[in-house]
Amino acid sequence: MGAPRIRRDDQVKVMSGKDKGKTGRVLHVEPKKNRVFVEGMNIQKRHMRPRSIRDAQRAEQVGGVIEKEGPIHISNVMLVDPKSGNPTRVGVKREDGQRTRVAKKSGEELD
Q1: In Å, how far are 56, 107, 109 from 79, measured between CA atoms?
Q2: Which of 49, 76, 83, 104 is deepest in the core (most CB within 10 A)?
Q3: pTM score, two decimals?
Q4: Contact 82, 75 (CB under 8 A)
Q5: Residue 35 DSSP code
């Protein structure tokens, strides 16, 4: 399968779905499921029962409706070119056994 072309902390643009056109930072990637979690995109609500947290200083109750980012399929996001700010494909360049990601539009290295 190979290493993912989109990695954590990359700036990506959502190309389809309810957040189409928005840009954000990748929080984490699930390469086996082909999913990415983007900051502030695909917000889902989860209903949590109040529970006490062990590591908290006071016995705080955390519960209610919690909003968090949901997964987006990796084919629905594109990397943002650092030079122009437009979405671009990602290529791979190999030199001396080193693998570097390259933005196809500008040719600029991403790593």
Answers
A1: 38, 13, 12
A2: 76
A3: 0.81
A4: no
A5: E
